[in-house]
Amino acid sequence: MIWAFCLLLTIGAASGIKKSVQMEDIFNPSLGVEHSHWLVGPIYHMASNAEVKGFLDLISDDEAVVFIEAFWKQRNANTPVFQDTPQDIFEQRCEEANKRFSENAFPGQRTDRGTIYILYGEPESVTYESPRKVGDRTVEVWTYAKDAEAGLDGERPKKTFRFVEIDDSTVFFTGQQQKPRDRLRRRNSGF
Question: Is the pTM here over 0.90, yes or no?
Answer without folding.
Answer: no
